[in-house]
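Dear V.,

Thank you for sending over the compound details. I've combined the ligand you provided, flavin-adenine dinucleotide, with the protein sequence from our construct and run the structure prediction for the complex. I'm sharing the raw inputs here so there's no ambiguity about protonation or stereochemistry in the SMILES, which I know was a concern on your side last time.
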Amino acid sequence: MKDKKKLVLVGAGHAHIQLLRHLEKTKPLWTPHWSVFLVNSMDHSIYSGALPGVLAGLLPPSQMQIPLEPLCQKAQVHFLKTQVQSLLLEKNSLQLYQGNQIHFDQLSLNVGSLNSPLPHDETVPVISLKPIGDLLSKWQKLLDILEQWEHSRPPHVALIGGGATGAEIAMALAAALTTQQKLQKKRLAKAWNEQPLAASSVAPVITLWQREDLLPNLNPRARKKLIQALHRWQIQIQTYSHVTGVFKGQIHYEIQPRLPSNNILSFETSKKSPAGPGDSRTQPVDFVLLATPAAPNPLIKNSSLPLIPPGFIGVEPTLQVSQYPHIWAAGDCVAFPAVPFESPFYDSTSYANANLYGTKVNSRTSKSEVPFLPKSGVYAVRQGALLSHNLCQLLSNNPNTLGTITFKNYVPQTRTLALIATADHRAIGAWGPFAMDGTWLWRWKQYLDQSFVQP
Ligand SMILES: Cc1cc2nc3c(=O)[nH]c(=O)nc-3n(C[C@H](O)[C@H](O)[C@H](O)COP(=O)(O)OP(=O)(O)OC[C@H]3O[C@@H](n4cnc5c(N)ncnc54)[C@H](O)[C@@H]3O)c2cc1C
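Below is the predicted structure of the protein with flavin-adenine dinucleotide bound, written out as structure tokens.
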């Protein structure tokens, strides 16, 4: 019997979870010709949508964890629980952490991203929210330390990054720290109207830091609801403040210029005298959580793949890596244009011009601010469906006729439904210019999340 060809999947991100499920359904078609391997550093995958609910203590961890061994067994995929250290592209091999190498004929990458780092010394713990795989244990340690806080003054926790994740996690932290769970439940209904939820006098002061306005891409109604929710949790909001580092127990930041149109919705609890743009200031802090913009996974950044600054993979619409048709990539590790590839603004032949491309879009299309899709689980999931189709198409065909297969293109949805959990069994929804909130949205979000985790 001839040797089978090898497809190796690196990273059990959202896209590969879907692929594994698809491989299970199509296994009679591909198992005669292909062996498939999954290499992942942990024995389960985390579904990011359910993560804030788990961190808030509203959901058990099982509602966000997808165990990989049973999934792989069902799909007849070989599971290797280890980390890939480097991509040896010239040899079509991967260097694994334990020292051995694994060859591939086709490779698919879904390894996620990290948070942009912040310069800091060792005086204050600085915890990155990504990678999300080990966040729960870091979170538990933080809660333990905060619970055992012995000083008479409250601890100051800073969340750097006021996007949807930063806001959700700030509320999740406030919720997790609310100790009297039963009492809290009774107060929730009232609290939605006007009462603040945080109780203890030494309850930590949580501040959400953002360089510009909070969630600039959210519609104004939804943003207002979100700010109200943060207010109910007594979370301080420090907008137009560019944090430059954390040294000697102080956050160092610079005041940023304000856009007049955004003033209506932003409010700051800081009572310091008004400062002008460029002013440098400091503020004491005890713990820092990083919800900063996505930074590339070192595995990708240190590879010779075609990269778009600061280090995300340039792909074709089929999700094949540019110049490497036997390598596929999806999710946060990819830079995917936010406008259709056939757009006259997009020059698909030159990834070196990626930044130029962004500028072109900005200067000629008023609506588009970001040249590439935001790093979000929503896009990773959608790309997973397309990746599953294309790879299963490839695997199900005779390996000798691979050149004749036509793959589908990924076309990003122009509008996504944002569902932001407010850590009180409620969620805020934003769809285009529309905004809503309520317990029904939280229940619906849970239903959607669970349909992914336990389909
Ligand atoms: C706290 C938090 C909350 C979020 N909430 C939401 C939300 O509600 N909705 C939403 O859409 N997005 C949310 N996001 C964003 C979301 O987490 C990411 O966009 C999403 O996880 C990206 O998925 P992915 O498929 O690219 O990879 P990931 O889900 O990050 O998975 C990558 C996998 O690759 C593995 N891996 C990485 N490197 C290696 C290696 N070298 N070798 C082997 N394995 C490796 C990791 O162990 C991991 O299993 C949130 C992010 C955070 C931090």
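A first observation: Confidence is low (pLDDT under 50) at residues 180-184, 197-201, 261-274, 343-370.

Warm regards,
I. M.
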